[in-house]
Amino acid sequence: MARAVASRRSFLGHSYNLVGVVASLVILAWTLVAIFAPYIIPHPIGDIVDDDYFGPMRQGLWLGSDYLGRDMLSRVLMGARYTVGISLAAVSIACFSGVVLGMLAAVTGGWFDTCLSRFLDAMNSIPSKLFGLVVVAAVGSSIPVLILTLAVIYIPGAYRFARALAVNINTMDFMTVARVRGESTAYLIGSEILPNIIRPVLADFGLRFVFIVLLLSGLSFLGLGLQPPLADWGALVRENIGGLPFAAPAVVVPSLAIASLTISVNLLIDNLPQKIRDRDT
Amino acid sequence: MTNLVEVRNLMIKATTDAGRVVEIIKGVSLDIADGEIIALIGESGSGKTTVALSLMGHARPGCQITGGEINVNGKNMAALSEKERAKLRGTDIAYVPQSAAASFNPASTIMEQVIEVTRIHRLMPPEQARKRAVELFRSLSLPDPERIGGRYPHQVSGGQLQRLAAAMGLIGDPKLVIFDEPTTALDVTTQIDVLKAFKSVMRAGGIAGVYVSHDLAVVAQIADRIVVLKGGEVQETGTTAELLSAAKHPYTRELLAAFEPKRRQAHADAEPATNQLLRIDNVTAGYGAVRDNGLPLIRAVDSVSLIVEKGRNLGVIGESGCGKSTLARVIAGIHPAAAGDIVFDGKPLRRAAGKRSQDQLREMQIVFQYADTALNPAKPVEDIIARPLAFYHGLDKRKRSKRVDELLDMVRLPKALRYRHPSELSGGQKQRVNFARALAANPKLIICDEITSALDTVVASAVIELLKELQRELGLSYIFISHDLSVVEAICDEIMVMYNGQRVEQITPDKVNAATHPYSKLLFSSVPKLDPTWLDGLVRDPELVSQYGHR
Fold first, then answer.
1. Distance (Å, rounded) from C-alpha B551 to C-alpha B549?
2. Is pLDDT above 60 for B293?
3. CATH number of B415's domain
4. CB contact under 8 A, B334 and A176
5. Does A112 lie at the interface with B, CB-CB under 8 angstroms?
6. Domain match, B399 and B515 both
7. Chain A residues in contact with B373 (beta carbon < 8 A)
8. Mean pLDDT of B167-183
């Protein structure tokens, strides 16, 4: 207990700890890479620049080359764009719709709540990879399809989470006061409930982002994600899986990239800065 | 002779989130002789529970005992190791918590939990422990002492559970028992039984006690000496009789004064009685499935009629579960009535709030008991108070801000408080904000549902005074729902007594002693008086008690 207190520092009225800072730096770095990738890659991602395949790390090819002799550093940097971009878009749609529906169900109650909950429970019971497989098989794989599929898969979870939180808030007296005042449903969910559940919802947003990164990587690994020559990290692992016996950096590096992003998001959620509430200072 | 308990210069400190160290207890000293019961009294935050817990060598998480000696039965609790302290807890010192309902494990029988102490400390074989427990049940005048131990906690009433918790504390033959507000959550009629049982058991066993409470009248019945705490320091110590008759410290006097609130001046110039603001006729409401006759299965409010006149106040009093809060919700339309009419300001009101017009909603405001849950913790005070201004009156930002200042001023809060969040306010301040929000609507009638019961005596009486002043200034009417007779007496022109969902009697405050209905008589006679001999001298009609008391 005493150590936990000591390792926390304070800044701008918030206390934070080292793990959280490191995690947010990693996330920030990947975000910058995703934004500026086209300007910083040393080689175009489609160019074959090495005579050898699965080339080792060396000057000029800092992360070696892939199974066709393309520059791995450029491909990982561009891959960040797809992995982070698609996942972020999907998680935003999933959490926004899930949270709004969840709060609506909690406030409205009755048949609306029952029908919606049962429907989304049914959705939840479909295995996510299988669902992805079916959709991609039916309509083909493109970035918008991937985003929507991933979003739909994660809406029920976000809905359940938000509804559970909102139901607790809904029983508070201030909700009764607002109702008796005659407030509209939009005000009730936006102004009375949301501010009270926003922190756990944001934490859930981060966690769901990790799930989506992993699912997207999984789909890409199965060949159902992005199609060549575009490649996200999952696809990079798959196309270079042949390099595993040679311990080629081409297969290790994208795996590490996935791990570093997902673990950092997780650690950040566990170590969010805490607002210091101290009445007398 | 040395005393059983000698606390010398006790210091307890706490560490806040920011790492700042706060002194909670600043050098408290007190003595307790063998078989003596002392009361620790003070407002919330005064450190009374902290001091009581320290007698067991326990400090709550985040707190440390940093100085002084706590000698209990010749051992310094502050210096012992946790293991040695654990040995003394339950055998030398016992603790009876405030909420017995939250302290019992709902999954095992009462008997198992009561004799657990003897098992942990290997005091006696289980058979003997059970016998001892039954003896204790009997001496605590619990019904059916032979078999009550076989029940589960939810199968006995709150007052019984509190006495069972005391039995749990007493089974290890402790020399000192700590009672932490054990009757605060009980109805007055039940409180009497519990107090009587505690008193007789303690006296018979010659056990010393520490009784933590904020209710001076309750303390007066049970304690030999009273220690008044405020801000972590002892303000005054004295025998009960001394303290009640000749309090020296200003804070003690304030406490005593708060106990006898000034009666509301009856309106000599009151408007004629024809000026009805609210009339409800034969209203019935309840819970559960609706039956063929259109009434719910369980009727929490059963054919109740009442009239509130303009500028006058109606008090509704009764024990918990009598339907008084449901009545408030029915009038406000939160829980629509199943039958009956509500007429407000000359016009009939729809039963459900959702179907009433905005003006009708505005003119009738309800203020809830727990300001903690009635104020949105995520919003600053100014947003909370400003919302009705924008919603009902459509004021622009500048006018709203000005009006918020006025409203804060009206409820006697400093303007700087508007930027704070509810969690940064004290209980009394929160209740004032809660009230300011109701005032912001410019209502004609405010329904106050137990608004003072979560507050300390001194704070509560200040809130009541405020309500009276506001009534004079703004010409409001209140429906005041409470289980506390002294509060209702202080502010109401008429008192309606409810029992089991029905109105049993309606009288004026000055006729409380001449109640005619047997339940009202029992209720009014059960309110503790400041006189220390009151409990011993109290004779209650056994027939009444068996008919209406929940023993």
1. 6
2. yes
3. 3.40.50.300
4. yes
5. no
6. yes
7. 172-174
8. 87
Sequence ranges of the domains in chain A: 81-272
CB contact under 8 A, B353 and A182: yes
CA dihedral B323, B324, B328, B330 (to 10 degrees): 20
Q: Are residues B71 and B105 in the same domain?
A: yes
Classify the phi-psi angles of A71: left when phi > 0, otherwise alpha if psi is within -120 to 50, otherwise beta: beta
Between A5, A174, A183, which is nearest B374 by CB? A174
Structure pTM?
A: 0.76
Say whether residue B334 is in contact with chain A using an 8 A CB cutoff. yes
Asked if A189 and A107 count as a contact pair (C-beta separation under 8 A), the reply is yes
Do B236 and B342 fall within a single domain? no
Number of domains present in the structure of chain B: 2
Q: What is the ipTM of this complex?
A: 0.75
Fold classified for A81-272: MetI-like fold (1.10.3720)
Tokens at residue A108, please?
A: 């409205």
Domain membership of residue B507 (yes or no) is: yes
Going by their DSSP bridges, the two strands B364-367 and B494-499 should be labelled as unpaired
CB B358 within 8 A of CB B392: yes
Q: Residue B191: give the domain boundaries.
A: 5-259
Asked if A274 and B17 come within 8 Å (Cβ–Cβ), the reply is yes
B237 lies in the same domain as B301 = no
- Whether residue B173 lies inside any domain: the answer is yes
Task: For residue A25, give both structure tokens.
Answer: 């730096």
Domain end position, chosen among B259, B286, B306: B259
* B479, B445 Cβ separation under 8 angstroms: yes
- Per-residue pLDDT at A6: 40
Residue B181: other Cβ atoms inside 10 A: 19
Residues 11-40 of B with CB under 8 A from A: 15-20, 22
Residue B485 within any structural domain of the chain:
yes
B309 and B189 in one domain? no
| Residue range B256-270, pLDDT digits in tens | 887 765 665 555 444
Pair (B141, B285) in one structural domain:
no
Average pLDDT, chain A: 85
Give which of B386, B395, B394, B482 is closest to B439, Cα–Cα: B386
Q: What is the pLDDT of residues A61-102, one digit of tens each?
A: 778 888 788 888 888 888 888 888 899 899 999 999 999 999
In this prediction, residue A278 carries a pLDDT of 53
Q: How far is CA B488 from CA B110, B313, B491, in A?
A: 37, 9, 6
- Residues B353, B461, single domain; the answer is yes
User: Would you say residue B266 lies in a domain?
Assistant: no
For residue B286, list its beta bridge partners: B299
